[in-house]
Amino acid sequence: MSTIATRPVVAPRTASGRLARFVKAAREAPLVAIVLLGGLVFMAIFAELIAPYDPTVPVPGATMFDPPFWMEGGRTTMILGSDFQGRDVLSRLIYGARVSLIVGLMGTLVAGGIGTALGILAGYVGGWVDQIIMRITDAWLALPAIVFAIFLAAMIGPSMWNIIIILGAVYWTRYARVIRGEVLSLRERDFVKLAEIAGASRFRVIKRHILPNVMNTATVLASLTVGVVIIAEASLSFLGVGVPPPQPAWGLMLAEARPTLMAGQWWLTVFPGVCILLIVLATQLFGDWLRVRLDPQQRNL
Amino acid sequence: MTQFIVRRILYSIVTLFILSGTIFLVVRMTGDPVLLLAEAGASTEDLDRVRQQWGLDRSWPVQYLAFMENAVRGELGKSFNYRMPVSELYFERLPNSLILGLAATAISLLVGVPAGIVSAVKVNSWWDNAAKGIGLLGLSIPGFWLGLVLILVFSVWLRWLPTSGAGDWRHVVMPAVALGWYFAASMLRLTRSSMLEVLGSEYIKLAKLKGLPEVVVIGMHAFKNALIPVLTLAGVNMVVMINAAVIVEVIFAWPGIGRLLYEGIFQRDFPLVQGVVIMAGFMIVGINLVVDVVYALIDPRIRLTR
Amino acid sequence: MDGVSFSLNAGETLGLVGESGSGKTTTCLSIVGLLPRGARIVGGSVVFEGEDLTRKSQRELRRIRGRRIAVILQDPMASLNPLFTIFRQVAEPAFFHQQMRGKTLRQRVKSLLAAVRIPSPEWRMRDYPHQMSGGMRQRIVGAIALAGGPSLVIADEPTTNLDVTIQAQYLDLLKDIQRETGVALIFVTHNLGIVAKMCDRVAVMYGGTIVEQGPVRAIFDDPKHPYTQALLGSIPKLGSRDPLYAIPGQPPNLASLPTGCAFHPRCPQAMERCAIDEPTNVHAGDGSVARCWLLAPAAAPSHG
Question: N- to C-terminal Cα distance for chain C?
């Protein structure tokens, strides 16, 4: 795994400098990722307006396993077909974006919050606090994250908010390690020493000098974590320990499609998977771009 | 040196204690297993008897110590559901997980290493971009969905491969691809960066200055050096794959430890779940310890490659 | 880089001198057709034994590298492959260029290692680089250079990473080997003391060009170019109480050289003309050649 380290970037404070930087950033921005993410976020926010049907109940008059409209037996009123209860696949996909995005973002936020806090604490306070935090981090890393998540989800019980907490509690380790390393080097820098000599309290030093300087790193890590968390949510939902039915989550849709996979109802398996693929791909592309922007040292990697 | 190894071993033990303690706590805090053990409508006396029988009447720390004491002796407790030792169940399933892990490792190496080398040797070329694309897809395509799509294509449509169960090699192909996919992408990235680092080294420059054929410079001088971190990661990844294959094993009904864990979860078989999860921790802490110690032992040569 | 031209004959030693970043290593690598990414030979020629190496294909160059022209790299500690035995690394040039195999090859490696004074070569050639001391590794790199039987060896600052005593030993060794085999040697260094000890001729590089070259005696006794004068002025002399001369300013970046003479911003005797026109080679009577307007007969009076 690559280690990530950043230096604070001194930004020009002039208006024209900011404008120039904005233009440059806009030109380098990953169009594909922004369009994809923008589209999915739009879908998630305005699901009620966009989705043709209620995703949780069968569409009146529809039969089960209607194929997409271009196939024989398909109809244009349900362009992506219907599932095993006669619910509209397209509507479920649109509402599913909401679950994936909420869990992905909130889970990342929880993980980032826990990890950043522990990383700063370990790196700045040091001593036995550092020892304890790092041993816990080691213990957490001793289990494959997904196994840990499945275990916790199975024990605590399925609900969307539980999943967010669980994924946050599982994926914080990387933040803690990276940010601790960064804080260790920040602690030796002059501006931190000066603040300490000037009599600033620990809390103030962390708030004013440490936190702003690790935010770039945390943001880059977050962009890399979102995709992982989204796939983890889909996996948990697929196993039946994630988002409970009848909520429209993509992982759950895949699980519901499985019993009839052999019968050849491919659209029930392919579409939700493609949605997961696209959203994760978009976050990855966006994350790569963000890493180049916020992390000058990685430019040549 | 000795000091480093001793410290590393102590850390590993501490890690395992924290991990097992956490798991033990989570299991105990999420419900009274006695209610699951006893038949419905059992009286309080019956419950107490069951509790005593399974050793659940003791305090948590005592239970934990007893559990750890047994774990060290290779005893992981008794399954609620199968009414037999967890270790027996575990080791019955482990060979299947090893086969799957080995096959998936092989696939990840066969895909990741050649692609990584080509992409490093022809850096910034069309090949490199294609390899970057594969790397990106490796992170973006969920392995379990890939498994489902493979079933759809190769079992349902083409009817080439069986959908589930264990048997001959044809049963292994699809689960191994679904499991190895993500790791192939990580192999690719590591091979590429490791190869780039080696190719920039002085000894590769000297090898070129000797007038050696390109094949010898890249295929022998560079490859051998670049391979050390790659094989290390492959070893660690294999242990991770053996333990993290839950979903793939469920999809393909592969009788490995991942599916054992899944069964344990749905039957609320706490000793089983606890045992499988802790064994995973043991294995991963173990392989990391081995890697660190071996690296420390052959340090002079490793230091030279930097 | 531009205006790098020098020549030397078999058995001769040329010293290539200059500050770090003046293009010495790039010059060496370009001779054998190995350039860093982004660099390219745009003109000029490298004539070696009557053949122009810049017109050769990579394939043909490969047959010249290691076999007719060998290079000793700057950092001998890093230039041995840590995972191959000494035998294998020394044997490779003979194996690929002279098709030596089996016993002959073993014999060859043994005598090469003996030639660079490795004790009990029979045993040591089974070792790996990390089992060797720095000085030994250095000598092994020398043995590798000789393995293909080259007629030219380019040594790129081969002693910078060694202790002073080992440095002296190594230089003596190179001299001995040169006497025995008659190879031509290009010795790249920033150490003028080594040049005085080792070389027949000197070429002084600055800003990617050779500003002055000639026989060692002539250059040391009567440097023509202000840069050479400054370099010589910066060597400490035993017993002298004069302050050392330090050249003001920084060596230029090869990607953005100043106009005219590259040295003019730092030159104590710079004239107006130096900032505009690039000086050309001027031959002096003692066999040395320098690029400087001070030496041009017409220059001095016109700008006085």
Answer: 31
CA distance B218 to chain C (A): 13
pLDDT attached to residue C36: 59
**pLDDT exceeds cutoff 50 at B284:** yes
CB-nearest to B221 from C70, C81, C144 is: C81
Q: CATH 3.40.50.300 region(s) of chain C?
A: 13-199
What ipTM is given for this predicted complex? Answer: 0.84
* CA C79/CA B175 separation, integer angstroms: 44
Any alpha helices (H) in chain A, and if so which ranges?
Answer: 15-28, 31-45, 47-50, 89-125, 127-141, 145-156, 160-170, 173-187, 190-197, 202-205, 211-239, 250-257, 266-294
Number of domains in chain B: 2
Nearest to B141 among A152, A239, A277 (CB): A277
User: Is residue A215, in this structure, part of any structural domain at all?
Assistant: yes
Crossing angle (nearest 10°) for helices A211-239 and A145-156: 70
What's the gap in Å between the CA of B273 and the closest CA on chain A?
Answer: 8
Please name which of C101, C94, C140 lies closest in space to residue C121, comparing C-alpha atoms. C140
Domain of A168, CATH number, reads 1.10.3720.10
Where residue B124 sits, what CATH number does that domain have?
A: 1.10.3720.10
pLDDT tens digits for range A25-50 = 666 667 888 888 888 888 888 878 87
Mean pLDDT, chain B, as a whole number?
Answer: 82
- Evaluate if residue B170 carries a pLDDT over 80: no
| Partner B contacted by C285 (CB < 8 A) | no
Tell me the per-residue pLDDT of A85-132, one tens digit each, with 9 for 90 and over.
778 888 888 888 888 999 999 999 999 999 999 999 999 888 899 999
For the full predicted model, state whether its pTM sits above 0.95: no
| Main-chain dihedrals φ then ψ at residue A71, nearest 5 degrees | -95, 165
Chain B contacts to C (CB-CB under 8 A): 201-203, 205-213, 216, 221, 224-225, 300-301, 303-305
- Determine the distance in angstroms separating the CA of A10 from the nearest CA of chain B, rounded to an integer: 29
Q: Residue A119 sits in which domain range?
A: 91-299
| Structural domain boundaries enclosing B201 | 90-266
Chain B contact probe: residue of C29, C59, C71, C81 with most B CBs at under 10 A: C81
How confident is residue C172, by pLDDT bands cut at 50, 70 and 90?
confident
Q: Note whether B139 contacts A280, CB cutoff 8 Å.
A: yes
Instruction: Choose from A2, A4, A151, A278 for mutation: most chain B CBs within 10 A.
Output: A151
The pLDDT assigned to A73 comes to 67
B217 and B103 in one domain? yes
Burial C24-43 (b: 16+ CB within 10 A, else e): bbbbbbbbbbbeeeeeeeee
Do C and A touch, 3+ Cβ pairs within 8 Å? The answer is no
Number of domains into which chain A is organized = 1
In a domain, A257, yes or no: yes
Question: What is the CATH code of the structural domain delimited by C13-199?
Answer: 3.40.50.300
